[in-house]
User: Fold these one by one.
Assistant:
Number 1:
Amino acid sequence: MNAGDVMTQHMITIGPGDSITHAVELMLKRRISGLPVVDDTGALVGILTEGDLLRRSELDTQRRRPRWIEFLVGPGQLATEYVKTHGRKVHELMTTPVRTVTEDTPLTVVVNIMESKRIKRLPVVRNDHVVGIISRANLLRALASVGREAKPASVTDAAIRQQLLAELAKQSWAPVALVDVIVKDGIAHLWGTLTEERQRQGVRVLAENTPGVKRVEDHLVWIEPVSGMVLPSAGDFKAIGQVS
């Protein structure tokens, strides 16, 4: 999927000359946390977010430093910070330049940018003009849609087992040579030995995501490396206790 497949197309924008008061009122009324800033031609020139409004003189939240640190920071930076905390126009507070993507940008790239730059939204542009915006909420909606559309696959037990083992072999963390899978009536029974207890959850999740699997039965055992103690799965441990 690409950014254009999940972006919000009818987004709210604001002009660089608009007042901060108007921007805040707009964000509250529309229940949005960021506004693309566009000029008279519709070209993107910045973005105003909640983060740009955290340190304000009205709230008495402006940054305060000891005098000696102010000396090291320098008058230029101090002046810039003053504008951010006291400015009245959008262009004085907005973030620029803006990280953007195009409609053809894969979602993997979108997520990488959001993670690496620690941002919550990305304007989607075409020829420098904003055509949409993609936020974390858009990604969650896309995830929910994919989940609703997913249908249980009608495949044979043999095919399920073959695909499950093939996926397991692709994982560098998986103890492929030590794990076996038996599939009966769509139920995947996991057998074998783990070299690290945390592998158990990884194998279970992989099995649960294999098309056609209705349920997973965990019979994997973990051999504790220091003592050599063999520890069964929680289900098998409970069954052993009931028998004894």
Note: The longest strand covers residues 187-194.
Number 2:
Amino acid sequence: MPKQITEIESMRLYISGVMERADHHANGVSDVILTLAGALIWKKDTDPISVFEINGQLKNVLWISINGKKYAFSYNHDVGSIEMRENTTQGQVLRSFMNDDTPHTIREYFNSL
């Protein structure tokens, strides 16, 4: 079930959890998470950010609206990347992010949305 994040402290706790899990299981995205977090906060609409929650635990799925479109971000264990999809975690992958993505390429991509 999605949980809305409307305060910076909630976002900090969410990112801290994602970073901790990435350090243990997803080294290929452990650095890009910080750049993505900044890009999401920079480009998000006024709608709250939503994250997936199960039994009070925040998971690695996040939804955000940018320019009126809803996007889902989730970690793909098989590929080892963070995937961006429109509306749902099951749709077509619009973009994958890994540590080799530079802040510049991420900025350009989010500027194009």
Note: The chain has three helices and six strands.
Number 3:
Amino acid sequence: MKTENLEIIVRSGEGREAFLTLPEHGSPRAVVLIVHGMTEHKERYRELAAILADAGYAAVCYDQAGHGATLPEERRTGLLAEKGGSRQVVQDALSIRDWIDQRLPGVPCLLFGHSFGSLVARACMIDEGERFAGFVLSGTASHPGLKGRVGRILATIAAGLRGPSKRSPRLLSLTIGSYNRRIEAPRTDFDWLSSDREEVDAYVADPACGFVPCTAFFRDLATLLLRVSSFKRLTGRLSNRPVLLLSGADDPVGKYGRGAAQVQELLNRAGVADVRSIVYDGARHELIHERIRKKVFTDLQRWLNRQIARQREAVG
């Protein structure tokens, strides 16, 4: 495995800290662009990237705006942009796709998004889905309904009154405050992330994880979720692009397995023909940091191999 740490300039002119992992020998079969979730960072995806490299795939992962271990604590607020952050975060991902085209021309690119990153991936489906050979959505969320609409209003008001970069413990509590509800005697506020205690403890101990985001982040989170849950926006976009949904049966973000089924139904109704969903019993939100992650990695690798083989058959 070969790894490069780098900075990629995105369309806004800002730099994003990133890493590129390549197979030790030969050209990569494809490249997987990884988009991380809220209040975490790219370094947590090194193991996934290494496993992909061993299987012959390149991987690129970058720190989203307002995130990252290299940012000073005062800037680590999840601020995507003072205005229009739900659009800017998608443009960032597409900028990284531009960079991949330059660095690895002609190599198929698949998009892997986790949690908040899965919403970014779903927005990329709508905007420029044809640029990706497939999509993997880990721990994604289904339509938030009235709660999501009210949440966006509250976050927009908070951003206007208090300022977009002001941290909001109240909005954080409204968003994830109930996620430990089904866990008996939770040890931390983040037990809902994984059933692996060591992984939860590592997350809690990481100063670049679990911070309180700003008001604008919650505004943009709600806006993005409502946008990607729109049947009208999705219709006719991706009939020939495969999608893999990965979810834990004990994941509150995915409504304990129901959310993945709802997103699959939405995609199917919108014309996406090839959607596969895997729900893992006993697993919570962060599947690549779960006790069953070897099974997750194996399933992901098999799906990737199948998609690349199909693409080569279609070209040949």
Note: The first strand starts at residue 2 and ends at 9.
Number 4:
Amino acid sequence: MTDLKDGPLTGLRVLDMSRILAGPTVGQLLGDLGADVIKIERPGKGDDTRAWGPPFVKDKDGNNTKESAYYLCANRNKRSVAVDIAHPDGQALLADIAAGSDIMLENFKVGDLKRRGLDYETLRQRNPGLIYCSITGFGQTGPYAHRAGYDFLIQSMGGIMSVTGDPDGEPTKVGVGIADVMTGMYSTVAVLSALHAREKTGEGQHIDVALLDAQLSWLINMGTSYLTDSKVPTRMGNMHPTVVPYGAFEASDGWFSLAIGNDSQFAKFCAAAGEDMATDERFATNAARVVNRDALMPRMFAATRSKTRGEWMEVLEAAGVPCGPINDLEAAINDPHALERGSRVKQDYPHSDKGFVETLGNPIKLSATPITYRRPPPQVGEHTEEVLRELGFDADDLKAKGAVS
């Protein structure tokens, strides 16, 4: 029986040639699940996101290192090998590593790797079982395939900014790189699906995932609403287009959230608030509340200002009405429930002034093969010699030729 103590993907090798965020997100997820992820970086500079700061990790003298917080967020459980991809021996080395790998991740511009003999069709000749995942801004086909893709560009083109933010404000992006992250999630699902298919056929396959495709897909109910009635959704601030009341509400001492998802919860809210809105036919059902939103919301806002946030939390939780504080990041990450569920992950990191670094925890809870945090995000080329010797390559010779560092 295979020992899966380090995760369900123990024994799988991932050649991670991706950069920025979407690709590294996939590599980190696979690494958290136990795969051996070999991160390929440019000698010296490494992944572009290493320089995307401040903040940076501080060394023992209080100076900035080359590791930014942005880089840390998607690169744990990886080993870094610094390879010059422009060097013929570097290209040959990567082809050799791919020949012995299960999965390859890349997010180069369309055609870049083919010129170096590192495209799927070339590599599959030596490794028919290779699962090769290409992540780009616009995909391998189509009129925009040649364009570079970045999260903000994709959010702007993909419609999400048109439905995010205040109705009277400017178009607003989501506060994190959500297009990158969601593309990473879809890519991970695709990789795991391809692994399952390989168990049946023995064959790998090429996976083509585009940021714009993913962005359009996760427009979910908003996108489907447009397809249903041809009405273009607009920005509604924190309110929901088809569930009312659902959003941010002001108490006497600040803001809190209400997520009233059905008529029973609305009736419970009205009872807790001492209001008769639930008996008014204009508001008795969610469909009626959506139609009569403009009449309902002033009454809701007046009602919620009658108590403090703490008072609302107490009375609404007791009544079974979904509500919560609107936390900043400090409060969210350090909430007692979040901490109990593993929101913070501390790993030894001798290069920092603290001797450790922290990243956000993986939300997956597996009963038999739990997530493991084996390696902190690596420095550039930290594992070049270790990995090459382990795989049977002459690290000294490759260094002398300038192919690796």
Note: The chain is about 35% helix and 15% strand.
